[in-house]
Amino acid sequence: MSEDPTPVSDSPFRSEPSARDEAPQFVLPLVVRIEKTEPPARTDALETSARAVLTILANERSAGEGEWAGAMRDWQDARIRKVVRRARGAEWRRAEALPGITVTGKSAEVRVFPPVPLDGWPKDLARLQVSGTDLDDPEPPVDADPAAPVLWLNPDLGMSAGKAMAQAGHAAQLAWWELSDEERTAWRDAGFPLAVRTAEAARWSELTEMGLPLVRDAGFTEIAPGSCTVVADHPALRR
């Protein structure tokens, strides 16, 4: 499989110039709640971010004549950009007042918003910090359930939590695009179960050769253009 259903030469995640670069550019904002005294665990934040992306893709407001459908189409016709910012206290409360969906994990809260123009962020989101979003896991994450979707991170790349959250969201979206309507419905009705884990080096090599959805980063931040960041290993896509 290619990275997404579009021709490989016009993938929304490839670094090479393409027709997608000629379209107006939009970004999907995600805001993670990080309170000073109770920050979320890193893995939970990554998983919650991925579920947030799936939740807005599956939401009725994003389809047909829904209120977000036009913005979602414009965003997906261009480069598929996602930006994760952090908020706490009053910042978070202002973000929650804007149209969007809050997805809650075990310790993480992530709010996803309909896409906005690259240079047209709402004021209360534009003022939020994007850099320095890093988190830790108090305990090593348990082994992923092999029967559930797993988003495997490249073990050779060091990414901030914010960058990794965006990449996990990319991978979840690629998996969503590859699924049939029936498979999407089943995943949605189950609450979008998934895990995010860092692959072992040998396993990563195998994963990248399995024909599963693979994110190649465009290189806007932190890592080199074309870097393979995440493989989306959904059971329904294992051929």
- How many DSSP H or I helices? 7
Helix and strand run: EHHEHEEEHEHHEHEE
Q: Mean of the pLDDT scores?
A: 88
Q: Which residues sit in consecutive blocks of at least 5 with pLDDT less than 50?
A: 1-11
Q: What is the C-alpha radius of gyration, as a whole number of Å?
A: 17 Å
Share of helix, binned: 25-40%
Looking at how many chains there are and whether they match, the oligomeric state comes to: single chain
What kind of sheet is the major sheet? 5 strands, mixed
Distance between the termini: 10 Å
The number of distinct β-strands equals: 9
- Our estimate of the beta-strand percent is 15-25%
Q: What does the overall shape look like?
A: globular
Keywords:
239 residues, alpha+beta, 4-stranded mixed beta sheet
Question: What would your notes on this structure say?
Answer:
With 239 residues, the chain is of the alpha+beta class. It contains seven helices and nine strands, in the order βααβαβββαβααβαββ. The protein has helices at residues 42-58, 69-77, 89-96, 123-126, 161-178, 181-189, 201-207; strands at residues 26-33, 81-87, 101-104, 109-112, 116-117, 150-153, 195-198, 214-216, 228-233. A hairpin with a 4-residue loop joins strand 3 and strand 4. Helix 1 (42-58) packs parallel to helix 5. The protein is globular.
